Protein backbone atom coordinates (compact mmCIF):
# COMPACT_ATOMS: atom_id res chain seq x y z
CA UNK A 1 0.00 0.00 0.00
CA UNK A 2 2.27 2.70 -1.30
CA UNK A 3 1.93 6.44 -1.55
CA UNK A 4 0.50 6.40 -5.04
CA UNK A 5 -2.33 4.12 -3.90
CA UNK A 6 -3.25 6.51 -1.14
CA UNK A 7 -3.31 9.38 -3.62
CA UNK A 8 -5.39 7.36 -6.05
CA UNK A 9 -8.00 6.59 -3.40
CA UNK A 10 -8.05 10.15 -2.14
CA UNK A 11 -9.03 11.29 -5.62
CA UNK A 12 -12.01 8.95 -5.63
CA UNK A 13 -14.25 11.71 -4.31
CA UNK A 14 -14.86 12.52 -7.96
CA UNK A 15 -16.29 9.02 -8.29
CA UNK A 16 -18.16 8.71 -5.18
CA UNK A 17 27.43 -8.79 11.04
CA UNK A 18 30.83 -10.34 11.28
CA UNK A 19 33.80 -8.06 10.28
CA UNK A 20 35.17 -10.65 7.86
CA UNK A 21 31.85 -10.76 6.02
CA UNK A 22 31.20 -7.07 5.34
CA UNK A 23 32.01 -3.76 6.95
CA UNK A 24 30.25 -2.81 10.17
CA UNK A 25 30.99 0.91 9.87
CA UNK A 26 30.61 3.36 7.00
CA UNK A 27 33.94 3.49 5.17
CA UNK A 28 35.73 6.85 4.92
CA UNK A 29 36.30 8.45 1.54
CA UNK A 30 39.30 6.72 0.00
CA UNK A 31 41.62 7.68 -2.81
CA UNK A 32 42.90 5.28 -5.41
CA UNK A 33 41.34 1.94 -6.24
CA UNK A 34 39.08 0.54 -3.53
CA UNK A 35 35.86 -1.43 -2.98
CA UNK A 36 33.38 1.02 -1.46
CA UNK A 37 30.26 -1.03 -2.23
CA UNK A 38 31.13 -4.37 -0.69
CA UNK A 39 30.65 -7.73 -2.38
CA UNK A 40 27.67 -9.88 -3.28
CA UNK A 41 26.82 -13.24 -4.77
CA UNK A 42 23.67 -14.56 -6.39
CA UNK A 43 21.85 -16.96 -8.70
CA UNK A 44 23.63 -20.06 -7.37
CA UNK A 45 23.59 -23.26 -9.38
CA UNK A 46 25.07 -26.65 -8.52
CA UNK A 47 28.46 -25.87 -10.03
CA UNK A 48 28.64 -22.09 -10.15
CA UNK A 49 27.52 -18.79 -8.67
CA UNK A 50 27.52 -15.13 -9.69
CA UNK A 51 30.06 -12.99 -7.80
CA UNK A 52 29.74 -9.20 -7.78
CA UNK A 53 31.55 -6.07 -6.67
CA UNK A 54 32.36 -2.58 -7.89
CA UNK A 55 35.80 -1.05 -8.27
CA UNK A 56 35.77 2.55 -7.05
CA UNK A 57 38.43 5.05 -8.03
CA UNK A 58 39.07 3.62 -11.51
CA UNK A 59 39.37 6.11 -14.36
CA UNK A 60 39.76 3.75 -17.29
CA UNK A 61 39.46 0.09 -18.23
CA UNK A 62 40.87 -1.88 -15.28
CA UNK A 63 41.49 -5.55 -14.54
CA UNK A 64 40.11 -7.04 -11.33
CA UNK A 65 41.04 -10.46 -9.94
CA UNK A 66 38.84 -12.73 -7.86
CA UNK A 67 39.53 -15.68 -5.57
CA UNK A 68 37.14 -18.41 -4.41
CA UNK A 69 38.27 -20.45 -1.42
CA UNK A 70 37.05 -23.24 0.83
CA UNK A 71 37.90 -21.20 3.94
CA UNK A 72 37.62 -17.60 5.10
CA UNK A 73 41.39 -17.34 5.49
CA UNK A 74 41.88 -18.24 1.79
CA UNK A 75 44.40 -20.93 2.69
CA UNK A 76 42.68 -23.32 0.26
CA UNK A 77 41.89 -21.38 -2.91
CA UNK A 78 39.61 -23.38 -5.22
CA UNK A 79 39.56 -21.11 -8.26
CA UNK A 80 40.69 -17.68 -9.36
CA UNK A 81 40.10 -15.49 -12.37
CA UNK A 82 40.15 -12.00 -13.86
CA UNK A 83 37.54 -9.56 -15.11
CA UNK A 84 38.01 -6.28 -16.94
CA UNK A 85 35.62 -3.48 -16.05
CA UNK A 86 35.13 0.02 -17.42
CA UNK A 87 32.84 3.04 -17.46
CA UNK A 88 30.47 1.29 -19.86
CA UNK A 89 29.33 -0.89 -16.98
CA UNK A 90 29.89 1.72 -14.27
CA UNK A 91 33.01 -0.16 -13.10
CA UNK A 92 30.93 -3.00 -11.72
CA UNK A 93 32.37 -6.52 -11.77
CA UNK A 94 30.23 -9.59 -12.30
CA UNK A 95 31.64 -13.05 -12.89
CA UNK A 96 30.07 -16.49 -13.19
CA UNK A 97 32.45 -18.52 -11.03
CA UNK A 98 32.24 -22.10 -12.33
CA UNK A 99 33.81 -25.45 -11.53
CA UNK A 100 32.44 -25.57 -7.96
CA UNK A 101 31.02 -28.49 -5.98
CA UNK A 102 27.33 -28.74 -5.22
CA UNK A 103 25.96 -27.96 -1.78
CA UNK A 104 29.24 -26.38 -0.69
CA UNK A 105 30.02 -23.16 1.20
CA UNK A 106 32.68 -20.95 -0.38
CA UNK A 107 34.36 -17.65 0.46
CA UNK A 108 35.30 -15.09 -2.16
CA UNK A 109 37.10 -11.75 -2.56
CA UNK A 110 38.26 -9.35 -5.25
CA UNK A 111 41.57 -7.59 -5.82
CA UNK A 112 42.18 -4.42 -7.83
CA UNK A 113 45.59 -2.75 -7.78
CA UNK A 114 46.71 -2.77 -4.16
CA UNK A 115 43.16 -3.01 -2.82
CA UNK A 116 41.38 -6.12 -1.56
CA UNK A 117 37.62 -6.27 -1.11
CA UNK A 118 35.76 -7.50 1.96
CA UNK A 119 35.16 -11.25 2.05
CA UNK A 120 31.84 -12.73 1.05
CA UNK A 121 30.30 -16.10 1.79
CA UNK A 122 28.18 -18.06 -0.66
CA UNK A 123 26.82 -21.54 -1.28
CA UNK A 124 26.07 -23.64 -4.35
CA UNK A 125 22.80 -25.51 -4.82
CA UNK A 126 22.76 -29.00 -3.30
CA UNK A 127 22.27 -32.29 -5.09
CA UNK A 128 19.98 -33.11 -2.20
CA UNK A 129 19.14 -31.75 1.22
CA UNK A 130 16.55 -32.25 3.93
CA UNK A 131 16.51 -28.63 5.10
CA UNK A 132 16.44 -25.22 3.41
CA UNK A 133 16.44 -21.85 5.20
CA UNK A 134 15.55 -18.74 3.21
CA UNK A 135 15.42 -15.12 4.33
CA UNK A 136 12.73 -13.34 2.28
CA UNK A 137 12.87 -9.55 1.93
CA UNK A 138 11.20 -6.70 0.06
CA UNK A 139 10.80 -2.92 -0.03
CA UNK A 140 13.80 -1.00 1.29
CA UNK A 141 13.15 2.75 1.17
CA UNK A 142 16.55 4.21 2.11
CA UNK A 143 15.37 7.59 3.48
CA UNK A 144 12.73 6.12 5.76
CA UNK A 145 15.07 4.28 8.10
CA UNK A 146 18.15 2.28 8.88
CA UNK A 147 18.53 -1.11 7.26
CA UNK A 148 18.31 -2.92 10.60
CA UNK A 149 16.44 -5.82 9.02
CA UNK A 150 19.32 -6.39 6.61
CA UNK A 151 21.68 -6.41 9.58
CA UNK A 152 19.43 -8.96 11.27
CA UNK A 153 19.59 -11.16 8.15
CA UNK A 154 23.39 -10.89 8.18
CA UNK A 155 23.41 -12.08 11.80
CA UNK A 156 21.13 -15.09 11.32
CA UNK A 157 22.80 -18.24 12.66
CA UNK A 158 21.61 -20.18 9.62
CA UNK A 159 20.55 -18.97 6.16
CA UNK A 160 21.13 -20.76 2.86
CA UNK A 161 19.89 -18.04 0.52
CA UNK A 162 18.31 -14.57 0.62
CA UNK A 163 15.30 -14.09 -1.65
CA UNK A 164 14.54 -10.46 -2.51
CA UNK A 165 11.12 -9.83 -4.06
CA UNK A 166 11.74 -6.32 -5.30
CA UNK A 167 11.70 -2.62 -4.48
CA UNK A 168 15.40 -2.98 -3.72
CA UNK A 169 15.72 0.74 -4.50
CA UNK A 170 13.13 3.52 -4.79
CA UNK A 171 13.04 6.19 -7.46
CA UNK A 172 11.70 9.15 -5.46
CA UNK A 173 13.60 12.37 -4.81
CA UNK A 174 14.47 14.37 -1.70
CA UNK A 175 11.67 16.95 -1.62
CA UNK A 176 10.32 17.53 1.88
CA UNK A 177 7.00 15.98 0.83
CA UNK A 178 8.60 13.01 -0.98
CA UNK A 179 7.90 9.49 0.18
CA UNK A 180 9.78 8.69 3.39
CA UNK A 181 11.43 12.10 3.68
CA UNK A 182 10.00 12.90 7.12
CA UNK A 183 12.35 10.27 8.48
CA UNK A 184 14.89 11.00 5.77
CA UNK A 185 15.37 14.56 7.01
CA UNK A 186 15.52 13.46 10.64
CA UNK A 187 18.09 10.71 9.96
CA UNK A 188 20.04 12.61 7.28
CA UNK A 189 19.34 9.80 4.82
CA UNK A 190 18.91 11.99 1.75
CA UNK A 191 18.39 10.29 -1.62
CA UNK A 192 21.21 10.60 -4.14
CA UNK A 193 20.68 12.14 -6.58
CA UNK A 194 18.22 14.36 -4.71
CA UNK A 195 15.64 14.26 -7.53
CA UNK A 196 13.51 11.48 -8.98
CA UNK A 197 15.76 9.17 -10.94
CA UNK A 198 15.21 9.04 -14.71
CA UNK A 199 18.59 8.91 -16.50
CA UNK A 200 21.10 6.05 -16.53
CA UNK A 201 23.47 8.09 -14.35
CA UNK A 202 20.58 8.69 -11.91
CA UNK A 203 19.81 5.00 -11.56
CA UNK A 204 23.46 4.11 -11.14
CA UNK A 205 23.97 6.72 -8.44
CA UNK A 206 20.91 5.52 -6.51
CA UNK A 207 22.15 1.91 -6.63
CA UNK A 208 25.56 3.12 -5.46
CA UNK A 209 24.00 4.88 -2.48
CA UNK A 210 22.18 1.72 -1.43
CA UNK A 211 25.22 -0.52 -1.87
CA UNK A 212 27.29 1.87 0.28
CA UNK A 213 25.11 1.04 3.28
CA UNK A 214 27.07 -1.19 5.70
CA UNK A 215 24.05 -3.24 6.80
CA UNK A 216 23.05 -4.03 3.23
CA UNK A 217 26.67 -4.91 2.46
CA UNK A 218 26.72 -7.29 5.41
CA UNK A 219 23.53 -9.05 4.26
CA UNK A 220 24.93 -9.46 0.76
CA UNK A 221 28.19 -10.84 2.15
CA UNK A 222 26.32 -13.38 4.33
CA UNK A 223 24.74 -15.55 1.61
CA UNK A 224 23.82 -15.73 -2.06
CA UNK A 225 20.83 -13.63 -3.12
CA UNK A 226 18.13 -14.55 -5.61
CA UNK A 227 16.30 -11.42 -6.73
CA UNK A 228 13.55 -10.06 -8.92
CA UNK A 229 12.69 -6.44 -9.49
CA UNK A 230 9.27 -5.08 -8.59
CA UNK A 231 8.24 -1.59 -9.64
CA UNK A 232 10.42 0.99 -7.88
CA UNK A 233 13.61 -0.28 -9.52
CA UNK A 234 12.14 1.61 -12.50
CA UNK A 235 9.22 3.68 -11.18
CA UNK A 236 5.95 3.19 -9.32
CA UNK A 237 3.28 0.84 -10.69
CA UNK A 238 4.47 0.09 -14.23
CA UNK A 239 2.69 -2.01 -16.81
CA UNK A 240 3.83 -3.09 -20.27
CA UNK A 241 3.30 0.31 -21.91
CA UNK A 242 3.94 2.83 -19.12
CA UNK A 243 3.74 3.51 -15.40
CA UNK A 244 1.74 5.51 -12.88
CA UNK A 245 4.86 7.52 -11.97
CA UNK A 246 6.02 8.27 -15.50
CA UNK A 247 4.88 11.24 -17.56
CA UNK A 248 5.68 12.76 -20.94
CA UNK A 249 8.15 15.20 -19.38
CA UNK A 250 10.29 12.26 -18.30
CA UNK A 251 10.96 11.05 -21.84
CA UNK A 252 10.08 7.85 -23.63
CA UNK A 253 8.85 5.11 -21.29
CA UNK A 254 10.73 2.28 -23.00
CA UNK A 255 13.99 4.26 -22.92
CA UNK A 256 13.56 4.97 -19.21
CA UNK A 257 12.78 1.33 -18.52
CA UNK A 258 15.88 0.24 -20.46
CA UNK A 259 18.07 2.60 -18.42
CA UNK A 260 16.67 1.35 -15.13
CA UNK A 261 17.14 -2.27 -16.17
CA UNK A 262 20.70 -1.66 -17.38
CA UNK A 263 21.66 -0.19 -14.01
CA UNK A 264 19.87 -3.03 -12.22
CA UNK A 265 21.72 -5.66 -14.24
CA UNK A 266 25.03 -3.88 -13.59
CA UNK A 267 24.58 -3.46 -9.85
CA UNK A 268 22.82 -6.70 -8.85
CA UNK A 269 24.32 -10.20 -8.43
CA UNK A 270 22.04 -11.69 -11.04
CA UNK A 271 22.91 -13.80 -14.08
CA UNK A 272 22.61 -11.79 -17.30
CA UNK A 273 20.03 -12.76 -19.92
CA UNK A 274 20.96 -15.15 -22.70
CA UNK A 275 21.55 -13.72 -26.20
CA UNK A 276 18.22 -12.75 -27.70
CA UNK A 277 16.47 -12.71 -24.32
CA UNK A 278 14.90 -9.47 -23.09
CA UNK A 279 16.43 -7.84 -20.04
CA UNK A 280 12.88 -7.75 -18.62
CA UNK A 281 12.72 -11.57 -18.71
CA UNK A 282 13.93 -12.15 -15.19
CA UNK A 283 11.92 -15.34 -14.61
CA UNK A 284 14.03 -18.39 -13.74
CA UNK A 285 14.10 -21.29 -11.27
CA UNK A 286 16.49 -22.85 -8.73
CA UNK A 287 16.24 -26.47 -7.58
CA UNK A 288 17.43 -27.41 -4.10
CA UNK A 289 17.74 -31.13 -4.66
CA UNK A 290 14.50 -33.04 -4.14
CA UNK A 291 13.40 -30.69 -1.37
CA UNK A 292 12.30 -27.49 -3.11
CA UNK A 293 12.21 -25.55 -6.35
CA UNK A 294 12.29 -21.77 -6.10
CA UNK A 295 10.49 -20.33 -9.13
CA UNK A 296 10.97 -16.60 -9.62
CA UNK A 297 8.41 -14.90 -11.87
CA UNK A 298 8.11 -11.47 -13.52
CA UNK A 299 4.77 -9.65 -13.24
CA UNK A 300 5.63 -6.01 -13.95
CA UNK A 301 7.21 -5.25 -17.32
CA UNK A 302 6.92 -8.10 -19.82
CA UNK A 303 3.18 -8.43 -20.27
CA UNK A 304 1.22 -6.74 -17.46
CA UNK A 305 -2.02 -5.16 -18.62
CA UNK A 306 -2.55 -1.62 -17.39
CA UNK A 307 -3.84 -1.48 -13.85
CA UNK A 308 -7.48 -0.57 -13.36
CA UNK A 309 -8.19 2.13 -10.80
CA UNK A 310 -11.36 3.11 -9.08
CA UNK A 311 -11.08 6.77 -10.02
CA UNK A 312 -11.08 6.23 -13.79
CA UNK A 313 -12.65 2.81 -14.26
CA UNK A 314 -15.79 3.03 -12.13
CA UNK A 315 -18.35 5.15 -13.91
CA UNK A 316 -21.45 6.82 -12.52
CA UNK A 317 -24.91 5.95 -13.83
CA UNK A 318 -28.17 7.91 -13.56
CA UNK A 319 -31.07 6.25 -11.75
CA UNK A 320 -34.79 6.80 -12.54
CA UNK A 321 -35.25 8.81 -9.33
CA UNK A 322 -32.64 11.34 -10.47
CA UNK A 323 -29.85 10.13 -8.21
CA UNK A 324 -26.52 8.70 -9.38
CA UNK A 325 -24.59 5.64 -8.26
CA UNK A 326 -21.42 3.71 -9.07
CA UNK A 327 -21.75 1.29 -11.99
CA UNK A 328 -20.09 -1.51 -10.05
CA UNK A 329 -21.26 -4.30 -12.34
CA UNK A 330 -19.66 -2.68 -15.40
CA UNK A 331 -16.44 -2.38 -13.41
CA UNK A 332 -16.57 -6.06 -12.42
CA UNK A 333 -16.84 -6.95 -16.11
CA UNK A 334 -13.67 -4.98 -16.85
CA UNK A 335 -11.90 -6.53 -13.88
CA UNK A 336 -12.73 -10.10 -14.90
CA UNK A 337 -11.83 -9.68 -18.57
CA UNK A 338 -9.81 -12.83 -19.52
CA UNK A 339 -7.51 -10.66 -21.64
CA UNK A 340 -6.06 -9.02 -18.53
CA UNK A 341 -2.74 -10.67 -17.77
CA UNK A 342 0.49 -10.50 -15.79
CA UNK A 343 2.72 -13.27 -17.22
CA UNK A 344 2.27 -13.27 -20.98
CA UNK A 345 2.07 -16.48 -23.06
CA UNK A 346 5.80 -17.30 -23.10
CA UNK A 347 6.21 -16.99 -19.34
CA UNK A 348 2.98 -18.91 -18.72
CA UNK A 349 4.24 -21.79 -20.84
CA UNK A 350 7.62 -21.71 -19.07
CA UNK A 351 5.93 -21.64 -15.68
CA UNK A 352 3.67 -24.59 -16.46
CA UNK A 353 6.56 -26.69 -17.79
CA UNK A 354 8.74 -25.74 -14.81
CA UNK A 355 6.04 -26.80 -12.35
CA UNK A 356 5.48 -30.03 -14.27
CA UNK A 357 9.19 -30.85 -14.40
CA UNK A 358 9.50 -30.14 -10.69
CA UNK A 359 6.70 -32.48 -9.65
CA UNK A 360 7.66 -35.12 -12.25
CA UNK A 361 11.08 -35.22 -10.56
CA UNK A 362 9.46 -35.62 -7.13
CA UNK A 363 10.57 -32.23 -5.81
CA UNK A 364 8.70 -31.81 -2.56
CA UNK A 365 7.88 -28.06 -2.55
CA UNK A 366 7.29 -25.50 -5.31
CA UNK A 367 7.98 -22.00 -3.98
CA UNK A 368 6.85 -19.11 -6.17
CA UNK A 369 8.88 -15.91 -5.73
CA UNK A 370 6.33 -13.30 -6.69
CA UNK A 371 6.13 -9.54 -6.35
CA UNK A 372 2.54 -8.81 -5.29
CA UNK A 373 -0.06 -10.33 -2.95
CA UNK A 374 -1.99 -13.19 -4.57
CA UNK A 375 -4.84 -13.86 -2.11
CA UNK A 376 -8.28 -12.36 -2.45
CA UNK A 377 -8.30 -9.31 -0.16
CA UNK A 378 -11.43 -7.19 -0.20
CA UNK A 379 -11.35 -3.65 1.11
CA UNK A 380 -12.80 -2.99 4.58
CA UNK A 381 -16.47 -2.11 4.89
CA UNK A 382 -15.93 1.05 6.91
CA UNK A 383 -19.67 1.37 7.55
CA UNK A 384 -19.59 -1.88 9.51
CA UNK A 385 -16.18 -1.39 11.06
CA UNK A 386 -16.77 2.09 12.46
CA UNK A 387 -20.57 2.33 12.53
CA UNK A 388 -22.66 5.26 11.31
CA UNK A 389 -22.54 7.18 14.58
CA UNK A 390 -18.73 7.14 14.77
CA UNK A 391 -18.46 8.12 11.11
CA UNK A 392 -20.85 11.01 11.71
CA UNK A 393 -18.71 12.16 14.65
CA UNK A 394 -15.39 11.72 12.84
CA UNK A 395 -16.21 13.43 9.55
CA UNK A 396 -16.29 17.07 10.74
CA UNK A 397 -12.99 16.56 12.61
CA UNK A 398 -11.09 15.19 9.62
CA UNK A 399 -9.11 17.16 7.01
CA UNK A 400 -10.89 17.57 3.70
CA UNK A 401 -8.75 15.00 1.91
CA UNK A 402 -9.34 12.47 4.68
CA UNK A 403 -13.09 13.04 4.40
CA UNK A 404 -12.89 12.33 0.66
CA UNK A 405 -10.88 9.20 1.31
CA UNK A 406 -13.32 7.88 3.90
CA UNK A 407 -16.28 8.67 1.66
CA UNK A 408 -14.66 6.77 -1.21
CA UNK A 409 -13.98 3.77 1.02
CA UNK A 410 -17.60 3.70 2.19
CA UNK A 411 -18.86 3.77 -1.39
CA UNK A 412 -16.52 1.15 -2.80
CA UNK A 413 -16.01 -1.40 -0.08
CA UNK A 414 -19.60 -1.80 1.07
CA UNK A 415 -20.53 -3.60 -2.18
CA UNK A 416 -21.77 -7.19 -2.18
CA UNK A 417 -19.70 -9.11 -3.09
CA UNK A 418 -16.95 -6.78 -1.87
CA UNK A 419 -14.45 -5.13 -4.20
CA UNK A 420 -10.68 -5.68 -3.92
CA UNK A 421 -8.52 -3.38 -1.82
CA UNK A 422 -5.51 -3.34 -4.15
CA UNK A 423 -5.97 -3.45 -7.92
CA UNK A 424 -2.20 -3.45 -8.51
CA UNK A 425 -1.99 -6.89 -6.84
CA UNK A 426 -3.34 -10.20 -8.19
CA UNK A 427 -6.84 -9.03 -7.23
CA UNK A 428 -6.62 -6.74 -10.27
CA UNK A 429 -6.03 -9.76 -12.54
CA UNK A 430 -8.45 -12.51 -11.41
CA UNK A 431 -8.48 -14.40 -14.74
CA UNK A 432 -4.69 -14.65 -14.75
CA UNK A 433 -4.78 -15.87 -11.15
CA UNK A 434 -7.18 -18.67 -12.13
CA UNK A 435 -4.89 -19.64 -15.01
CA UNK A 436 -2.03 -19.97 -12.54
CA UNK A 437 -4.19 -21.95 -10.11
CA UNK A 438 -5.09 -24.31 -12.96
CA UNK A 439 -1.35 -24.94 -13.46
CA UNK A 440 -0.92 -25.76 -9.77
CA UNK A 441 -3.80 -28.23 -9.84
CA UNK A 442 -2.76 -29.81 -13.15
CA UNK A 443 0.80 -30.44 -11.95
CA UNK A 444 -0.10 -31.41 -8.34
CA UNK A 445 2.34 -28.77 -7.09
CA UNK A 446 2.73 -28.11 -3.38
CA UNK A 447 2.62 -24.38 -3.95
CA UNK A 448 4.03 -21.91 -1.45
CA UNK A 449 3.70 -18.35 -2.75
CA UNK A 450 5.97 -15.68 -1.24
CA UNK A 451 4.98 -12.09 -1.95
CA UNK A 452 6.33 -8.59 -1.39
CA UNK A 453 5.27 -5.02 -2.25
CA UNK A 454 2.51 -4.45 0.33
CA UNK A 455 4.57 -3.38 3.40
CA UNK A 456 2.48 -5.82 5.41
CA UNK A 457 3.03 -9.37 6.68
CA UNK A 458 0.48 -11.90 5.43
CA UNK A 459 -0.45 -15.52 6.07
CA UNK A 460 -2.99 -16.52 3.41
CA UNK A 461 -4.87 -19.63 2.33
CA UNK A 462 -5.23 -19.60 -1.46
CA UNK A 463 -8.42 -20.93 -3.09
CA UNK A 464 -9.58 -21.08 -6.68
CA UNK A 465 -12.84 -19.56 -7.91
CA UNK A 466 -14.74 -22.69 -6.81
CA UNK A 467 -13.36 -22.40 -3.29
CA UNK A 468 -10.96 -25.34 -3.57
CA UNK A 469 -7.62 -24.92 -1.75
CA UNK A 470 -4.65 -24.61 -4.10
CA UNK A 471 -1.77 -23.48 -1.89
CA UNK A 472 -0.55 -21.11 0.78
CA UNK A 473 0.96 -17.64 0.72
CA UNK A 474 3.31 -15.77 3.01
CA UNK A 475 3.61 -12.04 2.37
CA UNK A 476 6.60 -10.17 3.70
CA UNK A 477 6.52 -6.73 5.28
CA UNK A 478 9.12 -4.12 4.32
CA UNK A 479 12.76 -3.66 5.25
CA UNK A 480 12.19 0.06 5.89
CA UNK A 481 9.29 1.25 3.75
CA UNK A 482 6.37 2.77 5.68
CA UNK A 483 3.80 0.49 7.28
CA UNK A 484 0.52 1.59 8.94
CA UNK A 485 -0.17 3.91 6.00
CA UNK A 486 -3.84 4.40 6.93
CA UNK A 487 -2.96 5.98 10.30
CA UNK A 488 -2.81 9.45 8.75
CA UNK A 489 -6.45 9.11 7.71
CA UNK A 490 -7.91 6.98 10.50
CA UNK A 491 -5.49 7.07 13.46
CA UNK A 492 -5.53 3.86 15.45
CA UNK A 493 -7.51 1.89 12.85
CA UNK A 494 -5.71 -1.45 12.44
CA UNK A 495 -6.22 -2.11 8.76
CA UNK A 496 -4.31 -5.40 8.62
CA UNK A 497 -6.22 -6.82 11.56
CA UNK A 498 -9.48 -5.70 10.01
CA UNK A 499 -8.63 -7.32 6.68
CA UNK A 500 -7.87 -10.61 8.42
CA UNK A 501 -11.23 -10.50 10.18
CA UNK A 502 -13.33 -10.01 7.04
CA UNK A 503 -11.39 -11.93 4.34
CA UNK A 504 -11.70 -15.73 4.44
CA UNK A 505 -8.36 -16.26 2.67
CA UNK A 506 -6.43 -14.09 5.14
CA UNK A 507 -5.51 -16.20 8.16
CA UNK A 508 -3.53 -13.31 9.65
CA UNK A 509 -1.97 -10.00 8.66
CA UNK A 510 0.18 -7.45 10.48
CA UNK A 511 1.38 -4.02 9.37
CA UNK A 512 2.90 -2.92 12.68
CA UNK A 513 6.51 -3.89 11.96
CA UNK A 514 9.36 -3.79 9.51
CA UNK A 515 11.34 -6.97 8.96
CA UNK A 516 11.57 -10.09 6.80
CA UNK A 517 10.42 -13.72 6.64
CA UNK A 518 12.48 -16.70 7.70
CA UNK A 519 11.20 -19.61 5.64
CA UNK A 520 12.34 -23.10 6.62
CA UNK A 521 11.48 -26.12 4.47
CA UNK A 522 11.85 -29.79 5.37
CA UNK A 523 10.35 -32.79 3.55
CA UNK A 524 7.38 -32.77 5.94
CA UNK A 525 6.59 -29.13 6.55
CA UNK A 526 7.03 -25.46 5.73
CA UNK A 527 7.70 -23.10 8.64
CA UNK A 528 7.28 -19.39 8.02
CA UNK A 529 8.28 -16.83 10.65
CA UNK A 530 7.48 -13.14 10.64
CA UNK A 531 10.85 -11.76 11.73
CA UNK A 532 10.59 -8.17 12.98
CA UNK A 533 12.89 -5.36 14.03
CA UNK A 534 11.82 -3.08 16.87
CA UNK A 535 12.66 0.17 15.04
CA UNK A 536 14.11 1.62 11.84
CA UNK A 537 14.83 5.08 13.27
CA UNK A 538 17.61 4.02 15.65
CA UNK A 539 20.60 1.78 15.14
CA UNK A 540 19.82 0.22 18.51
CA UNK A 541 17.18 -2.41 17.86
CA UNK A 542 16.02 -5.90 18.75
CA UNK A 543 14.96 -8.72 16.46
CA UNK A 544 12.05 -11.04 17.22
CA UNK A 545 10.17 -13.93 15.68
CA UNK A 546 6.78 -12.24 15.88
CA UNK A 547 4.60 -15.12 14.72
CA UNK A 548 5.12 -18.57 13.17
CA UNK A 549 3.00 -20.46 10.64
CA UNK A 550 3.26 -24.08 9.54
CA UNK A 551 1.93 -25.97 6.52
CA UNK A 552 2.45 -29.69 6.04
CA UNK A 553 3.36 -31.35 2.75
CA UNK A 554 0.08 -33.09 2.03
CA UNK A 555 -0.67 -35.34 -0.91
CA UNK A 556 -0.61 -33.23 -4.10
CA UNK A 557 -0.74 -29.85 -2.34
CA UNK A 558 0.60 -27.72 0.46
CA UNK A 559 -1.48 -28.24 3.57
CA UNK A 560 -3.44 -25.46 5.23
CA UNK A 561 -1.55 -22.90 7.27
CA UNK A 562 -1.78 -23.14 11.02
CA UNK A 563 -0.48 -20.75 13.66
CA UNK A 564 2.13 -22.17 16.02
UniProtKB/TrEMBL annotation:
CDD domains: MPP_PhoD
Keyword Glycoprotein: no
Swiss-Prot/TrEMBL keywords: Signal
Annotated InterPro entries: Metallo-depent_PP-like, PhoD-like_MPP, PhoD-like_sf, PhoD_N, Phospholipid_Metab_Enz, TAT_signal
Residue span, Phospholipase D N-terminal domain: 37-124
A Pfam short name: PhoD
Signal peptide: 1-22
Name of the protein: Alkaline phosphatase
